[in-house]
Design goal:
The structure is a single chain. With about 210 residues, this protein is mostly helical. The chain has one domain (about 5-210). The protein is about 80% helix and about 0% strand. The protein contains 9 helices and no strands. The protein starts with a helix and ends with a helix. One of its GO terms (molecular function) is amino acid transmembrane transporter activity. It is a multi-pass membrane protein. This is Amino acid transporter. One of its GO terms (cellular component) is plasma membrane.
């Protein structure tokens, strides 16, 4: 395996997943809340990261298996993914213009570990965007990686998810003042937009070979 190509696939997966996962939402707020409460943090972080990993593996392997013999379909799917990522980038740019903040309330009684894990899994699985992001978008980009490099891509994607949730959970007390500042989210959303467009461009360029 070419190390440079593997590194490119790894960082493509890492940057793509980071750009998708860094957002103000119910799941991230819940993880931050558990981190502030110091309650079942490891279980929550692992539940989120493992769920993401399973969905991404399903997306990449499923799309690669079903479309692997049809390069035109893979290119077409990549083009659709590029359009969605470009739109996501525009939305991130709009958020940067009028940034919000991520706040987590720590009130409430302690809950058993099992109930907390079920809560965060429910928040994740009942959110339709999780399937669009992990199965469709990550799956589309990953399926277009050469067969020997899909593992490196998935490793980067899974690492991004684990690092993000670990930072939210275990670094909650340090990150909360930062996430309460609109300026911080402005910078983050600008970075997210740039990463999304950086991933979308090669997908679009290859997809346009269909025409």
């Amino acid at each position: 395996m070419d190390i440079s190509l593997a590194g490119t696939s790894f960082f493509t997966g890492l940057s793509l997943m980071l750009s998708l996962i860094v957002a103000i939402g119910a799941q991230n707020t819940f993880v931050l809340r558990q981190g502030l409460r110091r309650e079942h943090v490891l279980a929550v972080v692992l539940a989120c990261a493992v769920l993401d990993a399973l969905l991404m593996v399903l997306g990449v392997s499923g799309l690669a298996a079903s479309l692997g013999d049809s390069p035109r379909l893979l290119n077409g799917l990549g083009l659709v993914g590029a359009v969605v990522l470009a739109v996501y980038g525009v939305l991130a740019l709009r958020r940067a213009i009028a940034p919000q903040v991520l706040l987590a309330h720590t009130d409430g009684l302690p809950a058993p570990r099992g109930r907390v894990v079920m809560q965060v899994l429910s928040l994740s699985l009942l959110n339709p965007h999780v399937y669009l992001d992990t199965v469709v978008l990550v799956g589309a980009v990953g399926a277009r990686q050469p067969a020997g490099l899909q593992g490196a891509f998935l490793l980067g994607s899974c690492l991004a998810s684990l690092l993000w949730f670990a930072a939210l959970g275990f670094g909650a007390r340090l990150l909360t003042p930062l996430f309460a500042r609109p300026a911080a989210w402005r910078v983050l959303d600008l970075l997210v937009a740039a990463m999304m467009w950086a991933v979308a461009w090669p997908l679009a360029r290859q997809g346009l070979t269909l025409f």
